């Protein structure tokens, strides 16, 4: 009953087979192989336009290099207070931008509130050098707490980005989970709404190491080849990333895997609600379920083999818990098995 | 007839099988899995002492983080003028050290000359802030031009490092090739001679993505966990690196692969010498052969399917070539097939 | 009626005379002159211990290099939400620390609340690389809003710093104003309470360019000579900074100037209170008075020649103002004349 | 007999008087005062075009921020092997550019050889990410060894800069000395020849702290306000820099001071040549004389009160000295007195 995180899962067999199949032969390294180029072309099709695609080794690298690409001296990027880049990347975004700052923006359900965003941006009047200058906005889809920006919510933020001439980045570590939940195409969830840069994550959804940084307008990422190489993120045998993406995108495997993960989360959510022994902290919209339960019950679950993390209540909801309760996070993935979900639900009572 | 580089090769089947076998199940991410810990233990055995091991995604990352670990303000690291970190890493070592400098040191055959090294270090008198301060020495084994530091040569540089209280780093992108060529153990080629930090490369020798940064004295790398994470080099599904190393080190596969590569280079070297149509630029001591031949002949080889890079003559040997000649680099690897070597030799004349 | 800021003032005549007197002759540059060493010795006396003193050109440089001296990868420094280093230095602290982060801590009256501080520090569990690691605490004395940490308040924060093994920095841009207001010695307001590093500002209090970074324990700043030079903060004709400090510290000129500035602020405060036309936002404890008044009245004052800045209400006090009111900041300095204060009070009504 | 360096001199009385005169009153800080704007206008007149002027506190800051303004990831700037930015700034240019590299270019007499420059630039083929990318060329006028680029020599380098689309920076720490020696106007020695960015130094020539970074095309420096502030180089009482420049430029004081320094150097040079006890290492063209003499004689001079530095022979001239000889540098300045020059000459023999 492992619900610790989607990066506790291994790799989908199709991905591993693809790696095996790609083992033989010689090809140009550093992204110059035929397969690399084919996958780049595949992303063009996927996004229905010519995009620029850069493979990197981690989601943190994708996020950090996205900001590095649009870096400004004294720059400030706006993201949700609970964003991964702010909370869980050990200052990598600051490091790769030579000290540009991340400014937390509040908002319910893990999503940036547009009014708060505007208020934060306005704290940096143009040409007031003392405060620094806005340089980017970043949203996470699905969010760190398993919720989703609806298309109109993305559009509202994109409008603000446009008004202030700021590029809009999407951290898509769980892009596929969001996509299938919203029943949108990649284009519909990104550039058609105003997203400029995407961290396209595949590692959590069945690959072992496949992350791509995508610029909807290639010109915006024109410095990326040098930025990425200098960041030690240009892998020599890059074609092995390419072959993971090949298998991942083939015949919509990625969507299928994400649908499975989301379905498992929905089943979990229903089971929790029906159990009357725990309650949802907020609706699970992708593949993460946050539940509130009695501390003793949580311990019992763990004793029965359930693996999960406890979570801090959101900054905006300090009163979410009673003192006898804890908040737990249950993450499902392509590898989550139905009977494990049902065992957990059964264990709840 | 692909002799372009050892990173043009794919992955050894045993490595790919290991990845496949590791696909199932759940394990702790970010280096915390049982397998990660087993491999760390394996490295302890390999080096006959307790070392600190950090997996990273590229050799450039290993080299750059090695320097970051011993960083000083205004720091200057000494490496050979033709070192990979100086010539081929797009300023990554400078970036990861926030601007510490690499100072080129000359020396024949791709190896740092100890006298030159001392002269360069002396250009930085202690406490003379204007010049900056020495912070590390880095050697490459096997070197960028396929030669080897003999044990006493490493010891001589290590003695200088010790005299000036500088850590000694070894870029071991082709560590295995050097090891089997010199018939030394990992301990004998490193810390027993005075090497403090090692970039242990496995990617060029049969893995697809397996690089480790090793501190012979773990205390020297005490900041590495944060440095690595901040550098976006802590891979979530790190156990897939671990499983590559597992297969790589098992039953001395890595040594076997390196021996094969070296043997192919020796065969190539002999063939070239005997051909009378080309001459060696310098002796091939590991898995790289540098040959000088007529430009027309080089073109003919390429037309017959040979793939290789031309190379600039070393800074110290401007008169190496006649005007009708070029210098070419032929790299062999675990994947180089005997008949390909023989075809190339045959094509020579 | 200029109350815009204490950096709108010029230089005290004694400072300028000192510069003039120091013009002739030759002396060793880069901090090596006899005068430089004398002033260093003077600081030892002032602080009643052997300290390390580094002159720099701006307060921002002093603050940023203080953090650079204790830098850690993924480092996080804690300061008040309204601290100058967080709000008004364009990311310089992040830049000089290669991306270390500033974490805002709340607290009333511009002062860090110890409980909040502990809560913030606890968000970074030891060895949890994802979050980064604590590296320093910084307090501002006098604070950005003209209040003062009482000795026991500094001691309480110092205790936390000690518990978490964090160095404690004091931004003393208005050090003298605080010192005379609290009637403490430099030693009593700093290391005797647990302050490790001090940005000792003299520019706002009568010099034109004299800032010093002081390490109470010289070993903590051992890298500073290289850090400062690399930061382009080692001035060649450094003795002209030294001679400003000479005149500044001579016969307690600095304390006299600060007492004057504070007295002017007190007079202003009393006048405002008595006017019944404006009210204090909070008590003025050093040389800054924050007053709330009707917007029209503020405009009238400006029309009569008063120069001052409007201020945003503190984050913690969103309800400080009615919609017809504004918050203004009135700063006094060594150069503020009594009759200007009285004119402003008279203009209030 | 102080010939140690022009930064051992103090400040010219006119400069110090100007500081004294500027002491009273209130003005806008951070470069916003009327005087700041007047001086900016004065620079426009001086350069016969609208330029952008940024005051900074050190020459190292000017040089480093010049490169920061044109920074590129993996960037490489080309300067002479003996350039101050390469030899004497403790890695500040690398620090302010987040690790961009300085590539040494050889050339006689302290001047970049255009053929060598082209050869170095060609080592970085466009889009070859491994090597990095060219980003700027920097020349020093007068050079570190007291020689001068003739106008056609600057033009030749500017042509290369233009061909490779690289900005051309001039380190003008001794700009005035070069200007009067060549009898050119500021415009004629800079943008009319193709110089894009100038570090305009006044500190060595009579100010105590007055350095300006000048962009001939203001658009090239458009990020400088934020870059400078983030670099802790925006001085609050900036008008005191402005008033130094005011006095410096008034009635051509600066040219007069530079003419004096150069004349003293010429007198020294003639005296040395005539003495037959020492010989010139190369012709002194500005205010620095490099002489070769017997070690014993050098010691005798020092015993008689002469202050100077010994110098390393240029990289390109290893055979400049006999083993009994040393190379010394004698620097003159606005403060050098005729009788001191004559005393030194007399002391020579």
Account of the protein in words:
The structure is a homotetramer of 349-residue chains. With 349 residues, chain A is α/β, with parallel strands linked by helices. Helix content of chain A is 40%, strand content 17%. Chain A has 14 helices and eleven strands. In chain A, the strands form two sheets. A seven-stranded mixed beta sheet of chain A has the order 1-7-6-5-4-2-3, sandwiched between helices. Chain A has a four-stranded antiparallel beta sheet with strand order 8-9-11-10. In chain A, helix 8 crosses helix 12 (253-275) and helix 12 packs parallel to helix 14. Chain A is globular. Chain A starts with 12 loop residues before the first helix and ends with a helix. The mean pLDDT of chain A is 96. Chains A and B meet through helix 1, helix 3, helix 5 and helix 10 of A and helix 1, helix 3, helix 5 and helix 10 of B.
């Amino acid at each position: 009953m492992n619900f610790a995180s989607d990066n506790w899962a291994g790799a989908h067999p199709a991905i591993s087979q693809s790696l095996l199949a790609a083992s033989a032969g010689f090809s140009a390294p550093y992204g110059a192989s035929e397969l690399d180029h084919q996958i780049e072309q595949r992303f063009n099709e996927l996004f229905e336009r010519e995009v620029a695609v850069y493979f990197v080794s981690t989601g943190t690298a994708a996020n950090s290099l996205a900001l590095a690409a649009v870096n400004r001296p004294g720059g400030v990027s706006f993201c949700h207070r609970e964003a991964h880049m702010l909370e869980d990347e050990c200052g990598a975004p600051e490091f790769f931008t030579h000290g540009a700052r991340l400014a937390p923006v509040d908002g319910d359900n893990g999503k940036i509130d547009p009014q708060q965003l505007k208020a934060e941006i306005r704290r940096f009047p143009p040409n007031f050098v003392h405060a620094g200058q806005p340089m980017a906005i970043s949203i996470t889809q699905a969010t760190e707490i398993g919720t989703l920006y609806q298309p109109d919510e993305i559009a509202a933020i994109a409008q603000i980005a446009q008004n202030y001439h700021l590029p809009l980045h999407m951290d898509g570590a769980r892009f596929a989970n969001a996509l299938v939940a919203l029943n949108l195409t990649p284009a519909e969830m990104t550039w058609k709404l105003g997203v400029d840069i995407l961290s396209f994550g595949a590692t959590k959804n069945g690959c072992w190491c496949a992350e791509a940084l995508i610029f909807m307008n290639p010109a915006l990422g024109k410095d990326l080849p040098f930025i990425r190489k200098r960041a030690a993120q240009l892998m020599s045998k890059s074609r092995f990333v390419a072959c993971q993406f090949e298998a991942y995108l083939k015949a919509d495997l990625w969507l299928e895997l994400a649908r499975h993960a989301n379905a498992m989360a929905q089943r979990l959510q229903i089971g929790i609600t029906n159990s009357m022994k725990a309650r949802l902290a907020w609706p699970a919209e992708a593949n993460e379920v946050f539940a509130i339960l009695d501390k003793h019950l949580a311990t019992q679950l763990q004793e029965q083999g359930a693996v999960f993390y406890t979570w801090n209540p959101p900054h905006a909801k300090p009163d979410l818990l009673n003192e006898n309760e804890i908040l737990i996070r249950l993450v499902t993935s392509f590898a989550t098995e139905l009977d494990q979900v049902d065992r957990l639900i059964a264990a709840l009572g």
